[in-house]
């Protein structure tokens, strides 16, 4: 009972102080999800207040979503998904900045490529060639699985013709891929596992499906599989969502040893692996070899997602999903129920763009450019922020996930301070379902800014960290 002890302040109603104290205990993890709160009479006696004060405190907790009641049993703690709540707030803040104003900001928030690297004239000629070749068919012909030519092209160029194209489905980007897979295989109260931290869009999709979400900590070589197996022993898991390369937000890639073990666990415990292959084209370190989980999938347990949008052109929403024997039909039906078909013109244009070798040229050019920016930004962060942060070295991708040292400004305040100085960072809390007290991160992406802009931005971040020390 000691953790419920309060030194009451005279100017705030006691029931509010009790409620706030319990909420803080829940957020800090000192009260677990679904833990029963003390009986009303017992807590009233312990705090020397009347029982009506405790009743009002518990009612306040319930109205704020921090507790729930079971008839005849008592009141139980309910942890709010603080990360998802703040993610919505964060998005609203950025939307309030007009497009004209945004040009005056140093933007470390986005992971889309700089559009200056996209060969607009080349792509315009590709579109014209497609229209001349296919005439009205580019606008009226729709295939539920996607344009067959593009699916065959993907199989040939990226999978050495080893994939059954009947399992390959064109989608409107990775987010839609996650959504239609979830609709196809995940039902209410199914158990899903994600990495901690992870891409907030995936958490939102699983939450919308009303799945039970388990978070597994991520280590320097990927998901903690010992922790995963302990959960597998006690719970029936439907799917594990993972980013095998340059995980968003940490930048961590899964080791070969862990990939093999994860596939073995999927077979042993009968769950699906949803592999989001994120920015694996942008490998900067020769020590990092590319082997997707799907290419190693001997048990047909991996559902693969790949987006072209991040690297091709953000406004052109294209990607693909490769299902398994048991899931492909359900995934296709889910796609049809979502939007019937993805743009036929854009699919045909991407197909021709890849076949003519432009995709390979673009990726090679981007890898060279972003490798340089990656190395320069790492130097700048080390020089300017080295005394205040720990950095995960990703060896690829387009961002750094940075841990603020103990007793420094928290990520939310740092974001607000930097925003006032026209520097945009991504607070780490949006990548966690629930936030622990010692988790204090922010992400810096380098897709759009020049070296000098990045140098200026990092200097401003350092200044705000120094001003905001606790």
Core attributes:
470 residues; alpha/beta; Arc Repressor Mutant, subunit A; Aspartate Aminotransferase, domain 1; Aspartate Aminotransferase, domain 2; 3 domains; eight-stranded mixed β-sheet; 17 helices; globular
Nutshell version of this structure?
This protein is an alpha/beta fold. It has helices at residues 14-27, 40-47, 51-63, 82-95, 99-102, 120-134, 137-140, 148-159, 174-185, 200-208, 225-234, 256-269, 328-339, 344-355, 358-385, 411-420, 451-467; strands at 67-70, 74-77, 106-107, 168-171, 191-196, 212-219, 222-223, 237-242, 272-277, 302-307, 319-322, 389-391, 399-404, 423-424, 426-427, 441-445.
Describe the structure in your own words.
Keywords: Aminotransferase, DNA-binding, Pyridoxal phosphate, Transcription, Transcription regulation, Transferase. InterPro entries: Aminotransferase_I/II_large, HTH_trans_reg/aminotransferase, PyrdxlP-dep_Trfase, PyrdxlP-dep_Trfase_major, PyrdxlP-dep_Trfase_small, Tscrpt_reg_HTH_GntR, WH-like_DNA-bd_sf, WH_DNA-bd_sf. In the C-terminal section; belongs to the class-I pyridoxal-phosphate-dependent aminotransferase family. It comes from Oceanirhabdus seepicola. With 470 residues, the chain is of the alpha/beta class. The protein folds into 3 domains: 76 residues, Arc Repressor Mutant, subunit A (Orthogonal Bundle), CATH 1.10.10; 136 residues, Aspartate Aminotransferase, domain 1, CATH 3.90.1150; 238 residues, Aspartate Aminotransferase, domain 2 (3-Layer(aba) Sandwich). It is built from 17 helices and 16 strands. Strands 4-11-10-9-8-5-6-7 form an 8-stranded mixed sheet, sandwiched between helices. A 4-stranded antiparallel sheet has the order 12-13-16-15, covered by helices on one side. The chain has a two-stranded antiparallel ribbon with strand order 1-2. A hairpin with a 3-residue loop joins strand 1 and strand 2. Helix 8 packs parallel to helix 14, helix 9 runs parallel beside helix 10 and helix 11 runs parallel beside helix 12.
């Amino acid at each position: 009972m000691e953790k419920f002890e309060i030194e009451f302040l005279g100017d705030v109603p006691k029931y509010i102080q009790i409620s706030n104290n319990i909420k803080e205990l829940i957020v800090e993890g000192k009260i677990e999800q679904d833990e029963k709160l003390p009986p009303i009479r017992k807590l009233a006696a312990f705090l020397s207040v009347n029982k009506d004060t405790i009743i009002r405190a518990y009612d306040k907790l319930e109205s704020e979503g921090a507790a729930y009641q079971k008839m005849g049993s008592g009141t139980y703690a309910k942890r709010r998904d603080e990360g998802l709540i703040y993610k919505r707030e964060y998005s609203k803040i950025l939307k309030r900045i007009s497009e004209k104003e945004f040009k005056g900001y140093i933007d470390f928030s986005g992971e889309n490529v700089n559009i200056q690297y996209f060969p607009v004239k080349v792509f315009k000629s590709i579109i014209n060639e497609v229209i001349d070749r296919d005439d009205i068919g580019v606008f009226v012909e729709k295939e539920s699985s996607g344009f067959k030519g593009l699916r065959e092209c993907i199989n040939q160029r990226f999978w050495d013709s080893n994939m059954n194209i009947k399992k390959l489905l064109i989608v409107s980007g990775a987010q839609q891929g996650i959504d239609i897979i979830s609709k196809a295989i995940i039902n209410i109260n199914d158990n899903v596992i994600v990495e901690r931290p992870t891409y907030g869009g995936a958490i939102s999709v699983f939450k919308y499906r009303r799945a039970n979400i388990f978070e597994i900590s991520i280590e320097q070589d990927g998901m903690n599989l010992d922790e995963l197996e302990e959960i597998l022993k006690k719970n029936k898991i439907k799917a594990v969502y993972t980013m095998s390369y340059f995980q968003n937000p940490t930048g961590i890639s899964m080791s070969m040893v862990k990939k093999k073990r994860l596939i073995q666990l999927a077979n042993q415990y009968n769950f699906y692996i949803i592999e989001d292959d994120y920015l694996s084209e942008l490998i900067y370190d020769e020590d990092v070899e590319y082997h997707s989980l799907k290419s190693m999938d001997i048990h047909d347990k991996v559902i693969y997602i790949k987006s072209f949008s991040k690297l091709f052109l953000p406004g052109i929403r294209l990607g693909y999903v490769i299902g398994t024997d048991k899931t492909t039909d359900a995934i296709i039906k889910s796609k049809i129920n979502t939007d019937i078909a993805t743009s036929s013109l854009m699919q045909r244009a991407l197909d021709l763009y890849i076949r003519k070798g432009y995709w390979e040229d673009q990726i090679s050019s981007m890898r060279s450019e972003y490798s340089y920016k990656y190395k320069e930004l790492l130097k700048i962060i080390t020089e300017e922020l080295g005394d205040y942060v720990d950095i995960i070295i990703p060896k690829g991708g387009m961002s750094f996930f940075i841990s603020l040292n103990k007793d420094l400004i928290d990520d939310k305040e740092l974001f607000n301070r930097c925003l006032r100085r026209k520097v945009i960072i991504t607070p780490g809390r949006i990548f966690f379902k629930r936030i622990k007290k010692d988790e204090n991160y922010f992400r810096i992406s380098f897709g759009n800014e020049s070296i000098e802009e990045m140098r200026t931005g990092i200097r401003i971040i350092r200044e705000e960290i120094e001003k905001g020390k606790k």
